[in-house]
Design brief:
The chain has 342 residues and is α/β, with parallel strands linked by helices. The protein has a 7-stranded parallel β-sheet. It has a 3-stranded mixed β-sheet with strand order 2-3-5, with helices on one face.
Amino acid sequence: MPVEMLDTTIAGSLPKPAWLAAPRTLWAPWRLEGASLEEGKRDAVRLALRDQEEAGIDIVTDGEQTRRHFVWGFVERLEGVDFSKMVTIGIRADRYKADVPTVTAPLRRQGPIHRDEVRYLRSQTRQRIKFTMPGPMTIADTIHDAHYGSRARLGMALAALLNEEAGELAALGVDVIQLDEPAFNVYMDEVRDWGIDALNRAVDGLPWRTVVHICYGYGIKANTDWKKTLGGEWRQYEQTFPLLAASHIGGVSLECANARVPMSLISLLGGKDVLVGAVDVASDRVETPEEVAAVIREAMKHVKPSQIFPCTNCGMVPLDRELARAKLRALGAGAALVRREL
């Protein structure tokens, strides 16, 4: 498929309207029920698309408007997960606590999980679309296992189910499938031992572009406090990028705006696409287009422009809606500045 230089996209999520769910809140419960909830989700998807299109975003998403949380949207439709057995666990190496369901039996899909969402998304825009799902290691870190006995076995089982789902979405017009793996920045040994294998299993045989999103998390206090402990340079990617360069994944999404990640590390990704986070989701300040352009230009020192897709650092669901819109406009305008230079 032909593409333009420096096509823009977003990491995945956008803030939900206040009439759909509580603003600036993760895992926010729905404020509607039944048919009204389904109609409200569709309305929110249309608004999310319009916000992206008006900002000049080239590869759009549904803003994850139909999912309470980026993990639950997939997990809620699996057999073997018991939501009546909620357990409080520490996730992301105990960075924060979460109430999660329990795996009590072998995992199976009850049927297509995201088919209807993708069909609706495809029907509402002529632009290329990206659909996001949680990666196997991150799901394994966000549920309680009482069946498989090891995170590796659980993760590989999840990878097989993600691959089944993704394969069915390919025929529906999705241009990019993204797996979100924030856990890759936390469990470095597990990434090496089984995380890359699980990621490869999840994208095995997929006929279109694939991306993995690895980041230092949403702009919430637990994450910003953690970042303060990481020192003057964040070099976790130095361990994972060579592994990803040899993997089957097509591209990597990461944060670069206001991050202490040395930009030179992206050269370790070889020929992979690089979704360069040029908008900071942990700040209430709106970037200028020139600031966005400066991040993109710095990335171009280390990888070819044809590999770069300007992006947001992470999901934007915890942000104010108007703030998110302004940051989208800055992203689109900043990429346009550099595109004209090229």
